[in-house]
Design brief:
This protein has about 80 residues and is mainly alpha-helical. It contains four helices and no strands.
Length: about 80
Amino acid sequence: MTFATRVKFLIQDRQIFQKWCGGDDNWTHDAHLFTELSNNRGLITPVPGYASHMETWVIAKLVDWEDVLNRTSSV
């Protein structure tokens, strides 16, 4: 859960953070958190953004993943 933001956004989005990070299961549901934040506010990935979940619904959007695959594939 390393990310950059402004304090005012943390304050504005406090209920969203509490919803996904403050449950009885002591688990941070970061994928749900960032999905809801991106639906409400919009999020971008850090550049170059090579660290990413590889499921298409949460993949870093500013990376040409086909190009990365072609450059790194041993096939």
